[in-house]
Design a protein that fits this description.
This protein is of the alpha/beta class. It contains 13 helices and 14 strands. Strands 1-9-8-5-4-2-3 form a 7-stranded mixed beta sheet, with helices on both faces. A 3-stranded antiparallel beta sheet has the order 7-6-12, with no helix packed on it. The radius of gyration is 21 Å and the shape is globular.
């Protein structure tokens, strides 16, 4: 079996550090707030070169908190990429705004700046970019568009811990960056957790207050907020993992390069195309093939797990039927039946990767031999 993800393996490699972190929180009864949360916020902010980092309950909460803190006019339009997890768009509508889907760039699967320009109306107030699969979105043209039209930019970095755009960590390029620490992320907690980062002091204060019932001090509520706090156990676990993140990403990059080299000449397979301005974190390694389902079955028969991220483009979901955008012909929709995520992560050996590559080559060799 070659697993798609192996969190048990990761735990076993840093067991002492994790166990010590958990014990320390229990020993100190520092379950909500406290020194472990403060320490992780400082560490992660420093890692990203961001001035402010605010821990929150999860990444979806982080997006909603960012949208609220930006004080967009009620009912504003917010542009969101058509290929993402629903949290990217769900946060918009749950914040009282209207989602406007924009198409993706075929090379990176991230937001297409040229398509964004066609979606802007007098009601547009913000853009949510998603650094999907760990590959940064092309931020310079997005930021230029935002300057021209007076728009806010939120970076959804749920899959991009450790990725960089032209040498700058993602999450620090727009008005706010939002991270999820869901267990399967490159930097994952042992439950739900998230963070919002910014270089704006006023925004940081709003983020913290919104996440903590509209207050900075106990019982002194300036407004109604919500309860979305990073708890001490998750913060301590994340602090134990953070020193290993760059090493894990280096391993992911090594695996990605092995995949890119091994799959480059297979007719019928489109490999990812990392851009020269990007330092991807390779949260996912996503290929495209019209034989996706058959290939996936073939891999499974050989004990190789894979995934699909995502099988339905956001505009095609029942949840967004009311927008009437399903028939617009999004590239994201046409690619949804072709994308396949291969195993990637520090749990894989080089031999594991070679087996995956061989299995794919074997499938397409037989496929082409049959003249199909």
């Amino acid at each position: 079996m070659i697993p798609f993800l192996d969190l048990k393996h990761q735990y076993e490699t840093i067991k002492t550090e994790i166990d010590d972190a958990i014990f320390s929180v229990i020993r100190d009864s520092a379950f909500i707030g406290g020194k472990y949360v403060k320490r992780f916020e400082e560490q992660f902010g420093s890692y990203l070169q961001a001035k402010y980092c605010i821990g929150v309950g999860n990444g979806t909460d982080g997006l909603e908190i960012a949208l609220e803190a930006l004080s967009l006019p009620s009912g504003s339009e917010v542009i969101v990429p058509a290929n993402s997890f629903i949290a990217s768009s769900e946060a918009v509508t749950r914040s009282g705004h209207r989602v406007v889907f924009s198409d993706i760039d075929p090379a990176t699967y991230t937001l297409s700046p040229s398509d964004v320009t066609t979606r802007i109306t007098p009601m547009t107030a913000a853009i949510i970019v998603v650094h999907l699969y760990g590959h940064p979105c092309d931020m310079e043209p997005i930021l230029e568009i935002s300057r021209q039209h007076g728009l806010k930019v939120i970076e959804d970095c749920a899959q991009a811990h450790g990725a960089a755009y032209k040498g700058k960590p993602v999450g620090t390029l727009g008005d706010a960056g939002v991270f999820s620490f869901y267990p399967g992320k490159n930097l994952g907690a042992y439950g739900d957790a998230g963070a919002v980062v910014t270089n704006d002091a006023n925004l940081a204060k709003k983020f913290r207050m919104i996440a903590n019932h509209g207050r900075l001090e106990k019982y002194k509520h300036d407004f109604e907020g919500r309860n979305s706090r990073l708890d001490g156990l998750q913060a301590a676990i994340l602090s134990a993992k953070l020193p290993h993140l760059d090493e894990w990403i280096r391993r992911r990059r090594s695996i990605a390069n092995r995949y890119l080299d091994g799959l480059k000449d297979i007719s019928g397979v489109v490999s990812p195309r990392p851009q020269p301005w990007a330092s991807p974190a390779w949260h996912l390694f996503v290929i495209r093939t019209r034989e996706r389902d058959a290939l996936r079955n073939h891999l499974s028969s050989q004990g190789i797990q894979s995934g699909v991220h995502y099988p339905v483009a956001l505009p095609s979901l029942k949840a967004y039927a009311y927008l009437g955008s399903h028939g617009e012909g999004f590239l994201a929709s046409s690619l949804a039946s072709e994308i396949l995520s291969l195993p990637i992560g520090e749990h894989l050996t080089d031999e594991d990767v070679n087996i995956v590559v061989h299995s794919i080559r074997e499938y397409f060799g037989s496929f082409q031999h049959l003249g199909r």
